[in-house]
Amino acid sequence: MDKIKQHFIDKEEQVISISGLYKSFGDLKVLNGIDFTLYKGENVAILGKSGTGKSVLIKIIVGLLRPDRGEVFALGKPVHSLNHKDLDALRLRIGFSFQSSALYDGMNVYQNLAFPLTMNAKHLTKKEVDTAVEKVLDAVNLRNKKKQMPSELSGGQRKRIGIARTLILKPEIMLYDEPTAGLDPITSTEIIQLINEVQQRYNTSSIIITHDLTCARNTSDRTAMLLDGRFAKVGQFDEIFNTEDQHLKEFYNYNFIQ
Question: Where a domain ends, among 170, 187, 209?
């Protein structure tokens, strides 16, 4: 499965810029000097074992956690120093696709998708909300699931609806947290294809947090390997693992051989 390049990356425009980022929890050092740039239109996969700080990093990017040191700029805004009001405004421009999909169990698919609009775009008419819901359902190829409850959906369908709910606010940046976790290989392939379609259709810039090498290889324009709280290597996927570094070789072999 090869990723088809049909999008433009503008390396003159940085949509996320991180420098000198540190984060600890008590004596546990999680991030230990992160420097990183995401360009407009680019997908970057961040790889690492469980517990290496991947999810902590994206929580810092959206201001859910504060760094101990360092600077984080997203869409030109200093996330590390924004107040709550400005953070809320920034988050409307950043889509966060949770690992669990985070759907409301008591709402059907239509209600789950309409909810972000009714909360954040109250000027929209019922017809405009309906149209927006239909568009994102088309984008994730689940138009016939509008009236179903989350409990009636498969794991892959819930992932798709979670992504659709993020897309409905037309974010400029997408953050995916373990998008293929817990899915069978066929469904994982569908989610990988969807991530690429979102990049091309919506011209998003994305960070894909994953330990799934197949996902990283097929969604990323660049890949970053997180080890010991730092990016050990950043580059094209094949460049990352064309190495004699034993830590990187072990990670690759564990995922692709075992």
Answer: 170
Q: Which two tokens stand for residue 185?
A: 């290989």
**Contact (CB, 8 A) for 175 and 102:** no
Verify that 80 and 146 share a domain, yes or no.
Answer: no
Listed residue (80, 53, 50, 51) closest to 68, CA to CA:
80
Q: How many domains does the chain have?
A: 2
Tens of pLDDT, residues 49-70: 877 888 899 999 999 999 999 9
d(CA 213, CA 197): 19
Of the candidates 170, 192, 224, which is a domain's last residue? 170
158 pLDDT tier (thresholds 50, 70, 90): very high
Give the CA dihedral 155, 157, 161, 167, nearest 10 degrees: 110
Structural domain boundaries enclosing 215: 1-93+173-258
Which pLDDT value is given to residue 43?
Answer: 97
Residue 138 pLDDT > 90, yes or no? yes
Rounded to two decimals, what is the model's pTM?
0.89
Band the pLDDT of 258: cuts 50, 70, 90: very low
Task: Measure the CA–CA gap between 146 and 160, rounded to whole angstroms.
Answer: 12
Q: State the alpha helices, DSSP H only, in the chain.
A: 54-61, 84-91, 109-120, 126-139, 155-167, 185-202, 213-219, 237-241, 246-256
Question: Rounded to whole angstroms, how far apart are CA atoms 24 and 65?
Answer: 11
